[in-house]
């Protein structure tokens, strides 16, 4: 792997001043030096935090974590407090203002964790252990107290080791390291640490709206999720939104003999097939009228990031046995997830296999999910989908039809929207904040930075973007094989150390782009 | 209801000679007179037969029935015997040749019955009782020994009361009545009585092929099933064939996240929808190339029978809540079942309802049934369906794909045909046998004869038609509300009596059409 060192010309192109390039190296070195001298203390701080059970909505546990984190911040002179809003699990807020700094960075992680089934773990999820490698490779537990050095391939095993407690410790340690070297931070720092993200963020919007006056920043940096599969740094600029509907086509009032009623009773399964086909072509393109309203064209910078290898295209497809992307067909992976997707999540009608009966089903149900891109609103999506179904000739109801409606309407659909949808959120690939951040990250790493214009998956970042109207970027640090949301979650020490260096670089910068 | 009495002109049009019209009346009167004088004896004979349990494949029970029936025939001078073929339940064969007769009628019923769950019956299914009306109307049981007359609205309740033991007794009684009046029979009569029809006729073809030399006839008359819903006599000229397939579209090797893989992994449910849509339009028309090969145009006589009210169109649709027939849309019921049907019997993929996950399913399965019409062969149907799927771009396998096949083929389908299909069978509506039979039936009844060119449902008559190459017609006698295949099967005495008269007419005729 060639080192991607920024030349002066590149620095200019990236809107980084030449002195800033020097500052990147200084910050990295400071972080490395500090970390080498304090590995045991840093790990102790991380493992102490991991020892606190943190499954929402267990308020007592979550509150204990919040108080502990407030303590970690106050010990560093960060003005910290707990934020409440109605029934929300507490969030932790902190601020560290730097004299002379003109810009503010908001750091986001969540400190709650996924539920655990301890019987599926190799060790207690809330009693962190250090292993001399991967559990899958049968690495043994290391005696932490007796260890005199810490190999970067060693790992901490505990719930939230990667998702997201250790990234928080990396951020705090980055501040320690900069101070120890007499460098930054050179930007005002705020923290917004969520306590119910793994529980679905049901009150995130409430929290943000209630405490909006604390949330002014130039950019939100979110240290959730893993780095690139290839081990490269990753910069994610957006996430798709998500919603879903249950769509039922009604046929006759009861299941009917397929001989006496085949061609006679409407076949709801065949009708559902026609309706799906009317909404989505064979290559994933959505055919619903006005569905794409509000979606901006893909910026050239985004296309370039995809062409530069935003994703490990070949392995993403080959690993689960996919011959080619459906969109296109054969579009690059990054392009396929930059457009909305209509996913048929489920189909059910009559019976298949050994249960098959020679009968015309009385109904056919589909679960249909939508992945939305920035610019689309839930309200508009729901309206155009309903309009489309009606335009195919259906009476659209929110309940079962009555006997009278069945006789009066040859085509009846029943539609229910999931209550849990949220919109996409994204920062344009050519935004100056992103150009600046990308420059810092490129300078900070010897490996290529993988810039993802839009992640296929969804996070409720639309709440953050919507309430704060502030650009955001996801800057993760943890290893991709961290078993997040699963038993035996872990973080590789080398990734933890890299994370400290990366955040030292980000917080040492003054973010004074124009 | 106007009496549909054949005039001399109509008799000519129906190819019935004027003397034949007189013979019809004579046979009816003979049957009525004989029945009135012998009701107790006729009912005793029917109830004695109904007392024998007859659920195939209980060979001992079936054989006891066969021997009993042979006895009933021999008592009438019919040359009767039991037919065997490998593992087949025994069939009963009988012949009664009439000096001077030039034509032969084959009479078919089955004497086995559907399985019973006695706990769901109001009385023992094999201990027939007479009720003074319908069980649904809370009619009481009549003391048979004490009764001195038998109301035509009374009913016998027992397994096979309608399906098909009493129709057999009606045929035998018709012969008794003709003889008592010094009339016919005027046609040679053969009987072929099946003992495993309700068990799926697994050996019917074997039996027919093994004993083909006994089966020469001019027409098979089949007394299975009920008369028209409106209480009118029914003449059915054919039945659709049936087969089905399981069709699975394979996606990625495993279920994938609908965000990270939506538009990327092929969505098997959406693909299945497209494949179904390619096979069948929204109005039930089958789009598969060459699917309709071999199907003869619908004869004008058949269209006329449909137009004349072959089916009780309004109630067939309204009763189960159907606004209009799917075929067309809005084609007459009789027309909709005269063409092949592609019935989606079941769909399954991923999950719907509360089980819905934001995931791209790895597969989608459909159960698809075909109802075939005369002229179609199973072999051809299977070939053109497979060709069609391949023409849509699919690799068609008879098993799960391997990992290598998944990566080499973007579109993979897995196809399995049911082993239980059989073809349609029908006698053309303008065949001279049918014109003659229709004439007899019209003359025999005061109610309109409902001629059904093709029944939507299926019976394995293709075996009979295929092995014997002889025209057939279904001439049922029993009430439509007989609860066939269900608990509390019954026959209404009035329908029993009418059946005796009808078969007396059919067997008194000489069938000497040209």
Characterization of this structure:
Chains A, B: It comes from Hyphobacterium marinum. Chains A, B: Residues 238-392 form the Peptidase M20 dimerisation domain. Chains A, B: This is M20/M25/M40 family metallo-hydrolase. Chains A, B: Keywords: Hydrolase, Metal-binding, Protease. Two copies of one chain form a homodimer. Helices cover 33% and strands 19% of the residues of chain A. The first copy, chain A, has 514 residues and is α/β, with parallel strands linked by helices. Chain A has two domains: 8-128 and 157-239 and 424-508, Aminopeptidase; 241-295 and 340-417, Alpha-Beta Plaits. In chain A, the strands form six sheets. Chain A has a six-stranded mixed sheet with strand order 1-2-7-3-8-20, covered by helices on one side. The longest helix of chain A is centred in the N-terminal third of the chain and has 33 residues, at 18-50. The radius of gyration of chain A is 26 Å and the shape is elongated. The two termini of chain A are 32 Å apart. Mean pLDDT of chain A is 93; it is low at 1-13. Chains A and B meet through strand 11, strand 12, helix 6, helix 8 and strand 13 of A and strand 11, strand 12, helix 6, helix 8 and strand 13 of B. Strand 13 (341-350) of chain A pairs antiparallel with strand 13 (341-350) of chain B.
């Amino acid at each position: 792997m060639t080192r991607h060192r920024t030349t002066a010309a590149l620095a200019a192109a990236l809107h980084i001043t030449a002195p800033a390039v020097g500052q990147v190296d200084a910050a990295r070195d400071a972080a490395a030096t500090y970390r080498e001298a304090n590995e045991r203390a840093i790990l102790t701080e991380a493992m102490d935090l991991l020892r606190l059970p943190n499954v929402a909505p267990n308020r007592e546990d979550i509150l204990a974590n919040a108080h502990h984190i407030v303590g970690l911040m106050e010990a560093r002179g960060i003005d910290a407090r707990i934020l409440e809003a109605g029934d929300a699990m507490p969030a932790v807020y902190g601020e560290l203002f730097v004299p002379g700094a003109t810009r503010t960075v908001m750091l986001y992680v969540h400190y709650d964790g996924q539920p655990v089934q301890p019987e599926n773990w190799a060790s207690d999820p809330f009693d962190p252990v250090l292993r001399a490698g991967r559990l899958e490779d049968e690495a043994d537990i290391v005696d932490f107290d007796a260890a005199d050095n810490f190999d970067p391939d060693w790992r901490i095993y505990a719930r939230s080791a990667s998702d997201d407690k250790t990234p928080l410790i990396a951020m705090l340690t980055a501040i320690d390291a900069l101070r120890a070297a007499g460098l930054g931070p050179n930007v005002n720092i705020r923290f917004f640490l969520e306590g119910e993200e793994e529980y679905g963020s049901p009150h995130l919007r409430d929290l943000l709206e209630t405490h909006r006056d604390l949330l002014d920043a130039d950019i939100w940096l979110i240290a959730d999720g893993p780095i690139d599969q290839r081990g490269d740094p990753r910069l994610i600029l957006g996430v798709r939104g998500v919603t879903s509907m249950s769509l039922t086509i009604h046929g006759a009032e009861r299941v009917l003999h397929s001989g006496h009623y085949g061609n006679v009773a409407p076949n709801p399964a065949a009708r559902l097939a026609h309706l799906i086909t009317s909404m989505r072509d064979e290559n994933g393109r959505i055919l619903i009228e006005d569905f794409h309203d509000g979606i901006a064209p893909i910026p050239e910078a985004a296309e370039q990031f995809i062409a530069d290898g935003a994703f490990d295209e070949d392995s993403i497809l080959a690993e689960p046995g996919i011959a080619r992307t459906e969109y296109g067909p054969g579009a690059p992976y990054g392009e396929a997830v930059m457009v909305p997707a209509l996913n048929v999540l489920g189909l059910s009608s009559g019976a298949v296999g050994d249960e098959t009966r020679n009968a015309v089903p009385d109904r056919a149900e589909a679960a249909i999910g939508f992945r939305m891109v920035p610019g689309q609103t839930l309200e508009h999506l729901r309206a155009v989908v309903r309009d489309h179904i009606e335009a195919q000739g259906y009476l659209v109801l929110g309940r079962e039809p009555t006997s009278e409606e069945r006789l009066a309407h040859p085509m009846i659909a029943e539609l229910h929207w999931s209550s849990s949808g949220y919109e996409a959120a994204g920062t344009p690939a050519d935004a100056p904040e992103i150009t600046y951040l990308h420059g810092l990250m490129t300078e900070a790493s010897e490996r290529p930075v993988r810039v993802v214009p839009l992640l296929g998956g969804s996070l409720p970042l639309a709440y953050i973007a919507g309430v704060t109207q502030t650009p955001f970027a996801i800057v993760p640090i943890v290893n991709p094989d961290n078993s997040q949301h699963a038993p035996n979650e872990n973080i590789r020490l080398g990734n933890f150390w890299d994370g400290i260096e990366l955040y030292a670089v980000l917080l040492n910068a003054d973010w004074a782009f124009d």
